[in-house]
Amino acid sequence: MREKNRAGRLSAELAAMKDARDTEGKHAYFHGVANARYVIRKVYRIIEEHAKSFDLDPVHHQSLIQIYGNSDRRLRVKELAARMDISQAFASNIASVLVERGYAERIPCDEDLRSHFIGITEEGAKLLCAIDDTVRVHVEYFTQRISESEREAAIYTMMFYIGL
């Protein structure tokens, strides 16, 4: 029953955000946007700082996440560029750094001999897990400190952005 009430409230909040976006002042809409951006930015800053403490640039860290998070743990450079919203040339440079540092490897593509995949190595996966282990306690500490209404506003806004 509680889940049904939560789902109903969620649906009402999303509708309210949509309605607020179409009003003149849009205050309720921007209230949700502000909370979502606050939470996202704070969590990303925590993650980026911990990646740096492992001597890993945040863009390299995010790229490893995209590679490892893919269903077959590999991406073409153009796919990495699309997932990171960067140019293919920049994605190629990132891939080269990750390969050079032993966190990724180039894997030939059977369908196109001119192309290859960037796959995560065991060392790269271990590094991601180590960063995640150190980040977890800090993110949990932060999220326990925000109010339920701030948390819900952030969730509603993200759901609104993705069209739920």
What can you see in these coordinates?
This protein has seven helices and three strands; from the N terminus they run H-H-H-E-H-H-E-E-H-H. It has 164 residues and is mainly α. Strands 1-3-2 form a three-stranded antiparallel sheet. The longest helix is centred in the N-terminal third of the chain and has 27 residues. The mean pLDDT is 88.
Secondary-structure element pattern, one letter each: HHHEHHEEHH
CATH topology: Arc Repressor Mutant, subunit A
Radius of gyration: 20 Å
CATH superfamily: Winged helix-like DNA-binding domain superfamily/Winged helix DNA-binding domain
Supply the key terms.
164 residues, 3-stranded antiparallel sheet, 7 helices, 3 strands, 73% helix, elongated
In short:
By secondary structure, the chain is mainly alpha-helical.
Please give the structural blueprint.
Blueprint: H1 2-21, H2 27-53, H3 58-69, E1 74-76, H4 77-84, H5 88-100, E2 104-108, E3 116-120, H6 122-145, H7 148-162
Antiparallel strand pairs: 1-3, 2-3
Helix pairs in contact: 1-2, 1-7, 2-6, 2-7, 3-5, 4-5
